[in-house]
Each structure stands twice: as C-alpha cells, then as structure tokens.
UniProtKB/TrEMBL annotation:
Pathway: Protein modification; protein glycosylation. Its cofactor is Mn(2+). The keyword Cell division does not apply. Its main location: Golgi. This is Polypeptide N-acetylgalactosaminyltransferase. Keywords: Disulfide bond, Glycoprotein, Glycosyltransferase, Golgi apparatus, Lectin, Manganese, Membrane, Signal-anchor, Transferase, Transmembrane, Transmembrane helix. It is a single-pass type II membrane protein. Its EC number is 2.4.1.-. It is found in: Golgi apparatus membrane.
Length: 453
C-alpha cells in the first residue's frame, strides 16, 4: 500500500462526524487524526455535527477549542436544534457539507496514515462506487489501536442485522492485496460516497428513526440501483467497539425493528418473509409512510432483491430454496421440535428441544440441504457420534461429521457414526442426542415442508 502513488488531483472530501454526548478524548482523537493524516489537497473540511448533546463541555468549551485549534475553518461545528438520531443527523451533516465526496465517520475513531487517498482515488474512477475502509479495532478499555481488521467484509442475517464475513484472503506481500473487495453490505459507520451521487440515490430514508437498519437499506439500494459497494484494503480506520449501546432510544422504541420493516417492505420483495419469520411481532407494527421510497425505487429503475442475492451475495443461504426440506424438525411422539433455545448462534452450543410452535418460532427452522446438512443460517448440526452424545450447532463446513441422512423411514441418521437422532426421552428445553438406531418412536422425525425427498 505504501508504494502506491495517487494523483494530486482527486475529489476533495468533507468528512462528516456525528456525535451525541461523545467523550471529549475520543471525539478529539477522531478529529485530530482526520486533519493530521489527510493531505490538505484532499481534505475540504471536517463537518462536526452535534446531535443535541447536553454535556456542558460539548457546548462553549468545544466551540472555543475548535476556534483556537483550527482558525483556518477546516473544522466546522454544526448543531441540530433537537435530537435527530444518527440517521437524520447524517442527512443534516451531508446537507451542510460542500466537498466533492462525503466521508461519514463515527465520533470514536482514529484515521490511519494514508487512509483518505485510496477512498478518493476509487471514487474518482467511478462515481457510483461507495467505498469503505478496513475497520481496525480500538480497545474500549485501554483505547489501544489494534491493526486487526483483516479482510472482513459485510453480510447480513435474515433478522436484518449486519454481520461480518471473511473476504478472500490475500497474502500481504501479494500485489492483489491492495485491490478493493466487493461487499454485499457495510457496517454503516465508516464509508465514502460522492456527495451528489449520495443524494441522487436517495441519501438515507428520512422515515427511519434514530438508529438501526439504515446501513443495510443503503447497501441494498446501492447495489440494486446500479452502484457498487467495496472495501478498500489500503484505507484503514480504527473504531472503538463499545460494550454498551451509545445511543438512547426515545420512548424505548425498537427503532432497529421498525426501520427494518421499512427496509423489508421497500427493497426485499417476497424475501421479506424471512425477516418476518424472525420478527413476527413486527407484522402489525406501524412503520409509517413508505410511498416516497417505493417511488424512488421505481424512478431509479432498481433491480429485484432476487437479482441482488443471485449476483451480489450468491453464497447467502436461503432456507427454502435449493434444499430438500425445511421448517420444523418434529418428533411426533413427544410433540417436541429441534430448537436453538434462543442461544447466541455466533457461539457453538448443543441444539435443544422445545414444544413445536407450528411455524411461530424462527428458533425451530432448519433446512436439509442437497449436501445433506441440517443447518441454520450459518451453522450446521454435528456430533461426536458416541451413544448418548449431544448434537451441536457449529459453523458449516465440509466435515463428514455434518452429514445427515433423512428419508421416508422418518429417521435422521448421522452418516459418519450411523447413529440416529433421538429425543432420548428428554423433555421440552432438554437436549437431543444420538443413539444406536432402533425402531423406537423417539427416533422418528418429520420436517415441516418437503420439497425434494
């Protein structure tokens, strides 16, 4: 990366930093790193937008500090007159900015040396690219910068949460290491976009409230409406990942859930069924008027969500497509179904059993794939195969221990061990096991929907 030479003539950036009651040290660390590590020919301004902070030190003290430290006006302080939330505050920050390119950055970051040139260079090549730096971690306790961003890019879960996924690993010494990596989604706190293009494609959805879902909505919209989203390895920015949520939610509203309904209804077509499978409570939720966003989609002549899945995120697992069967895995004798028991699926854990919810719980939805995996969105069933051993959910792989055979005999057989899935006489909230195959009804299972068996 250090050997790459960039043109002196690149679009100039307005870096937009939104803050609300941010700590003095982390806010100024962010701003100083931007100004100090951005060549002046590329930095038009830093727009520091205060979303109605009520801490005294962020009022006159901050105003005076900015005036004394940057008398040339490179840092501008803009304030909202009421609490807007991160989404509407970013719209306000973008409207206040006058540079060629908008770079949105959270208020608890550190820009690294050489961070801005790769972003501006990529946009200068194609104004329809939205580009993100690689995100390194800053420890939230020690505030130490750790250059561990690696090659992770963005994905999403069907519950419409952002997820990190591994990009194509490239050796650091390879010339290909510096090439941008296409990404289905972005985290949303750190990205660059040409200012006019940002507004051409609809900025943010102003009907979304406070925080949540806006990053996926923008990601889907960019791809579906003719743009591209990339991570740029030679641009690196540190970010403090906090142990608690930095935003307050007026009225304790589930803003992520409500915003995600708006996203699903406008952009996901029939695939919104998977969001509602996870969030049945949102089916009756008032999500406001989305007519303007639907008109925007038509005006921009955007493609379908199926096109997005096929062309941008082809490895995204779809529970009811290209599978043998899917839905509840039910033991008739006990009326128990396999169930995650609401455990964190980013961890490895034993799969449990719970009274069948007849499609009312996403925790009971599994798919039997053509590779004979019994799986969830990212994890597959596996077991050691010993008599009475439990069955775990682990990240899917090609391990033979993850192969299960299910046929019209209604057994589910672990291929590597030849053992059968068995309730073991367990109760609801207990754990399923494998045992030597018999004809016992505790080993008889059916799936809710058979597509090809």
């Amino acid at each position: 990366c250090k050997n790459i030479k960039y043109s002196k003539v690149l679009p100039k950036a307005s870096v937009v930093v939104i803050f609300h009651n941010e700590a003095w040290s982390s806010l100024l660390r962010t701003v100083h790193s931007i100004v100090n590590r951005s060549p002046p020919e590329y930095l038009h301004e830093v727009v520091l937008l205060d979303d109605f902070s009520d801490q005294d030190f962020l009022r006159e003290n901050l105003k005076a500090y900015i005036a004394d430290t940057w008398p040339d006006g490179i840092v501008r302080l803009v304030r909202t007159t009421k609490r807007s939330g991160i989404i509407r505050a970013r719209i306000a920050g973008a409207k206040a900015a006058t540079g060629d390119v908008l770079i949105f950055m959270d208020s608890h970051c550190e820009a690294s040396t050489g961070w801005i040139e790769p972003l501006l260079s990529r946009i200068s090549e194609n104004r329809r690219k939205v580009v993100c730096p690689i995100i390194d971690s800053i420890d939230d306790m020690t505030l130490e910068y750790s250059g561990n961003g690696g090659y992770q890019i963005g994905g999403f879960s069907w519950s419409l949460h952002f997820t990190f996924k591994n990009g194509s690993p490239r050796p650091v010494e390879s010339s290909e290491y510096t090439l941008p990596v296409r990404s289905p989604t972005m985290a949303g706190g750190l990205f660059a976009v040409e200012r006019k293009y940002f507004f051409e494609i609809g900025a943010y959805d102003p009907g979304m409230d406070v925080w949540g879902g806006e990053n996926l909505e923008l990601s889907f919209r960019v791809w579906m409406c003719g743009g591209q989203l990339e991570f740029v390895p030679c641009s690196r920015v540190g970010h403090i990942f906090r142990s608690r949520h930095p935003y307050t939610f007026p009225g304790n509203k589930d803003t992520h859930g409500i915003n995600s309904v708006r996203l699903a209804e406008v952009w996901m077509d029939d695939y919104k069924r998977f969001f509602y499978m996870h969030r049945r409570d949102m089916l009756s939720q008032d999500y406001g008027d989305i007519s303007d966003r639907k008109v925007l989609r038509q005006t921009l002549n955007c493609k379908s969500f199926k096109w997005y899945l096929d062309n941008v995120y082809p490895d995204k697992f779809i529970p009811d497509e290209n599978v043998r069967a899917w839905g509840m895995v039910r033991n008739a004798e006990s009326s128990l179904c396999l169930d995650t028991l609401q455990k964190d699926e980013n961890t490895v854990f034993d799969i449990g059993m719970f009274f069948c919810q007849n499609g009312g719980s996403a925790s009971q939805v599994l798919s039997l794939t053509y590779s004979n995996h019994l799986r969830r969105e990212e994890s597959c069933l596996t077991t050691s195969g010993q008599d009475g051993s439990t069955v775990q959910l682990q990240p899917c792989s090609y391990s033979s221990n993850m192969t299960w055979i299910h046929d019209k005999s209604n057994t589910i057989v672990h291929q590597a061990s030849g053992k059968c899935l068995d309730t073991g006489g367990g109760k609801s909230e207990g754990y399923v096991v494998v045992n030597v195959c018999t004809e016992k009804p505790t080993q008889k299972w059916t799936m809710q929907h058979y597509l090809d068996l």
